[in-house]
Each structure stands twice: as C-alpha cells, then as structure tokens.
Amino acid sequence: NAGVMQNPRHLVRRRGQEARLRCSPMKGHSHVYWYRQLPEEGLKFMVYLQKENIIDESGMPKERFSAEFPKEGPSILRIQQVVRGDSAAYFCASSPGDAEAFFGQGTRLTVV
Amino acid sequence: GIQVEQSPPDLILQEGANSTLRCNFSDSVNNLQWFHQNPWGQLINLFYIPSGTKQNGRLSATTVATERYSLLYISSSQTTDSGVYFCAVERSASKIIFGSGTRLSIRP
C-alpha cells in the first residue's frame, strides 16, 4: 500500500505564473487535507476535502487559491498568479475519515 | 475553534537524556496524533492516540482526554531524535489542527 504521493517534490515558478500541486491519497482514503508550512514555522491548515466536496476551506486565501478532489484522480491545489509570498512547503495528508492521517513528502514551491 | 498548545517550544538535551513533551487542547477531540518532522522536512507518524497509553521502543505517549492533554515521552535520546514534534487534534468530520511544535535538539 503506497503512501500519500505528492508531486512535484520541487516546483519553481516565476511571479504571475500558475502552480499546480498534486496529491494522491493512500488507497481507501477519501479525506484529504492541505497545509502550508513556512520555514521554521508550524503547519497551517488550508483546506479539507472529501471526494468531490470541499468540507472546510477556512484556511484558504480568498483569492488565487483553489482546491479540488475529483471522483477520479488526485487532489489538486492550484495557485494562480503566484507571488513571492507563496513560496513555502505545501503538505497534504489523507485519512479514511475519523482515523489516523498520513502525510506526503510535500511540495517545495519557490517563486522567483 | 480548538486551540492546541505545545510545551516547551524548544528543548536542548544531551544524548542519553529523557524528555517529556506536552500538548494541551481546549476542547474535546475525537483523534490525536503525534508527528516527528525530521531535519529533511518529512512528517513521520509516531502515535495515533485519542486516549490511553501506547509505547513504541524508546517512545511512549499518554492522552488523558477528559483533562485535555497528551504527553510524549522520549527516553535515552539519540541524535536522530532531533527535529520538531507536533501534536495534532481532530474533532469528528473536521479539519486537523496542529500545535506550534516542540523543537528538540539532541547534542552528542
């Protein structure tokens, strides 16, 4: 049973470009959570999704950020028109719901 | 929302020492986990412990749900134990909330 897979591991984007971060949950897991981590800081909640539904997006910036978890395929975190302040590590986690969650290895986004 | 507080924020120990990390949370929760983020940034599951006591080698954890706290014990510390230890809690069908972590440095 493969773990949570995130790709790419590293992503470099110029200011104004779009960033797409992918997260494939563990087999049998229908709940996905996205977090952002700045250097030397903790994990800040962004969004919680179940298949085809956004359950809680209270941590998502109102503009430029969106997330989806379609019926088929990975969960996608999309950042439009990236700015330098978007540079961070983005982690996703999955769980079967109300149970232990597991994290991927993260995507390090650098905006130049 | 639920507040999660971890203490101490930083801890420096000599190799071989023991330590206790604490996690307090402000409301009842269904789930509680401890994670270790190693110096390479990986988040490693240590314990899934909504209540009770568990042990895994040199590590053990206890959660007293009625008093809203959890403790992580590390015995005979090794340099590979260095990193940040996070406590995370979840209410049913809700987001997972992290504490700010305890940064542990083990000196050889």
Tell me about this structure.
The complex is a heterodimer of chains A (112) and B (108). With 112 residues, chain A is an all-beta fold. Chain A contains no helices and 11 strands. Chain A has strands spanning 5-7, 10-13, 19-24, 31-37, 43-50, 53-56, 65-68, 75-79, 88-95, 102-103, 107-111. In chain A, strands 2, 4, 5, 6, 9, 10 and 11 form a 7-stranded mixed β-sheet that branches. A 4-stranded antiparallel β-sheet of chain A has the order 1-3-8-7, with no helix packed on it. Chain A is globular and about 35 Å long. Chain B has strands at residues 4-7, 10-14, 19-25, 31-37, 43-48, 52-56, 59-64, 69-74, 83-90, 96-98, 102-107. The model of chain B has no long low-confidence stretch (mean pLDDT 96). Chain B is an all-beta fold. Chain B starts with a strand and ends with a strand. Classes of the chains: A mainly beta (112), B mainly beta (108). The A-B interface holds A 33, 35, 42-45, 48, 55-56, 58-59, 89, 91, 93, 97-103, 105-106 and B 30-31, 33, 35, 41-43, 45, 48, 86, 88, 90, 92-101.
What are the main properties of this structure?
heterodimer, A: 112 residues, mainly beta, seven-stranded mixed beta sheet, four-stranded antiparallel beta sheet, 11 strands, globular, B: 108 residues, six-stranded mixed beta sheet, five-stranded antiparallel beta sheet, 0% helix
Write the layout of secondary structure elements.
The complex is a heterodimer of chains A (112) and B (108).
Chain A: E1 5-7, E2 10-13, E3 19-24, E4 31-37, E5 43-50, E6 53-56, E7 65-68, E8 75-79, E9 88-95, E10 102-103, E11 107-111
Parallel strand pairs in A: 2-11
Antiparallel strand pairs in A: 1-3, 3-8, 4-5, 4-9, 5-6, 7-8, 9-10, 9-11
Chain B: E1 4-7, E2 10-14, E3 19-25, E4 31-37, E5 43-48, E6 52-56, E7 59-64, E8 69-74, E9 83-90, E10 96-98, E11 102-107
Parallel strand pairs in B: 2-11
Antiparallel strand pairs in B: 1-3, 3-8, 4-5, 4-9, 6-7, 7-8, 9-10, 9-11
